[in-house]
Request: fold
Amino acid sequence: MNVVPDTSVVVDGRVSERVEDGTYEGATVYVPEAVVGEVEAQANGGRQTGWDALEELQRLVELADEGTITVEYVGERASEDDIKRASAGAIDAIIRDVAAEYDATFVTSDIVQAEVAEGKGIDVEFLEPLEPDLGELEIEEYLTEDTMSLHLKAGMVPMAKRGDVGEIEYQPIGDEELDEETIREYATEIVSTAKRADDAFVELSEDGMTISQVRDMRIAVSEPPFSERIEITAVRPIVKTTMDDYEQADDLRDRLLERDRGVLIAGAPGAGKSTFAQAVAEFLSDAGNVVKTMEKPRDLQVGDEVTQYTELGGDMAKTADSLLMVRPDYTIYDEVRKTDDFEVFADMRLAGVGMVGVVHATRPIDALQRLVGRVELGMIPQIVDTVVYIEEGDAETVYDVTTEVKVPEGLMEEDLARPVIQVRDFETEVPAYEIYTFNRQVVTVPLDGDEGSSESGVDKLAKQEVEREIQAATRDRVEVDIRGPNDAIVYVSDNDISHVIGKGGGRIADIENRLGIDIDVRTLDERPSQVAGGSSGDSGGSGGASADPAGEIVTPEITSRHIILPLDDGRSGETVEVQADGEYLFTATVGRGGDIKVSRGSAIAEELERAIDAERMVTVVPNE
Reply:
């Protein structure tokens, strides 16, 4: 009897099984080199199926040595292109040709392969795919009710994160080191179960990394060359909550149902963000909303009525486009990390879909700060109107985000009115932060000031901006005292005072107009000693007596590819600001050659060229 197995039965171990039960005893097994090439590529890529197949080939050789069967390797070896086109049937065709050439029984558990072979007149034995025992995984023996994650690595004792939410501890859970063979057995069982169980699936399969979802466990198997040793990491939720389990639950429920919202759920790793997101998803679904999720990997523990989506074609933007066609009322986006994620979140929100995003943040305000620069500032309240900060498993802080045109808190002049993002405590309605543009920069100002400091956030901001403007017109140190919401005193050296004031007071008048603040210019000798020793004397920027000189006037050189700003020797590696007539343009790091190079065609270069064309004075100021 002649037998030619294809890759599917080699991976499953079906050939040796039928030799041992006597079905193929005395047969000649022709193993196509195309099968060997395919499984070798799988093993080199870290896929468990490749290792399983190599073990089966070794068993066949052992059976041949015992005289039970004869094994011959025949046919052409699969090329790299054939392996890449394996899913299109390139390797299957080579294997069928081998079966026809040797007048052998073609053995497969691939129904498509069997049907094609029969159509070509080849004798086929179709073996039903194995239905493995899909009970508990062996690694589940390590799990207890309070185990959040399991960490198994070859050569290490088993480790786990255990404890209550907010009190998780990483600890050893065994005394004996695990060997590589044991870890591989665990990995084989995990991947096999993920492929065949109804409540499991393979989320990601790449060279060296396979991520599976088995019931409520997300299990990652990493192998060389991706990791230095084989490792299994299994993560699962240890609590499932409802909205009733959180502070401010009633108000949050009313807010979510009032209209479609843009919500960011923020918190540190392990704080319970995803657990809260699951509670929100199920609450919204129970309230009659169509709810979908966008996850990579899909591991939110939500009910069957909530459909979970992952990347479509490796791109969440494609997933978003598809979701817009089915028009969910709310979409849970877990997790929003990269710029592309924030852009997708914003696009869906602006398209009218209620969005709930999960983000990492160590403070509540940091969740909003991550949007700054990624989306237009004025659009932020339309994209996110609610921030929920989770700490130790509870909703610690909730912010309401709105926008209005007003004079920022602490400033007085009516002509300083501008769009201001108001961030209020949801429970007390007390303003906590304001976000707005000031002197072409986006600033976030805390309205209650820093603890232990007599200066408000606005005072610090004003001092910083006044120092920046005055420093551009001086060669010596600058000290600033903020006397009121729109009043400051600037102290400069005797040599600089006339230059700061300018001809007929023109320069200081321009600075006052730009900042919207009245500035009284005095010499450093006029500054009261008690003030100089106080907190205002320790201001940032150039307030110290040993501060670097102010701005260095430079003559830009324009080449075909760069705008070069030559500087004095010794400034390599220094971080500086580039200004035009005292107006901030950009921040840069001085190169090794002691100059700054800006690539032409960039937005920064275009702005710098406009300043040069207008014959504005270009200066480089230390960024302190």
Summary: The chain has 19 helices and 32 strands. The radius of gyration is 34 Å. Residues 48-65 form the longest helix (18 residues). The CA atoms of residues 575 and 589 lie 4 Å apart.
